Amino acid sequence: MGRSAAESRATVVHLAVPTDANFMGNVFGGVILADVDRVAYITATRHSGLNCVTASFDRVDFILPVKVGQVVTFDSRLTFVGHSSMEVWVQVLAEPLRGGPKELVGNAYVTMVAVGEDGHPVPVRPLEVTDEEDKRRFAEGRARMEERRRTRHPPPNPGAG
Length: 161
What we know:
Elements: E1 3-4, H1 5-8, E2 10-15, H2 29-48, E3 51-62, E4 70-81, E5 85-96, E6 103-115, E7 127-128, H3 132-152
Parallel strand pairs: 1-7
Antiparallel strand pairs: 2-4, 3-6, 4-5, 5-6
């Protein structure tokens, strides 16, 4: 039996503190990526009911800097589910600590793979797509997954060596 994207959706909230930032007061991209990875893990694990590992980050965009003192929200949802892999879309929003509008500061697509006790990939339940938006995201996710598979192992370079 499948699950909808809404059933696995996850949100993580992080306060940007000085140890997260460079000398300009901007949070390091790696700090942002760590939380993106965490929230993607939660979403994939909720969907699959299994332990999951990160297979790839795809199309990470840092749109605006995150400043020390901002509250950062990481909102994730499934877009595509294959045999054992799941594509998770994460939006990163930031707002002033004392309140104010949230701004989109980044987003990423993360591929998570469900694994068994032996660490090898295992099948996951399908993603139920219930509306036109879910269907569109699923088709786009399938296309991204196919492109990742196509480019994951490039052909050998005959001139190398």
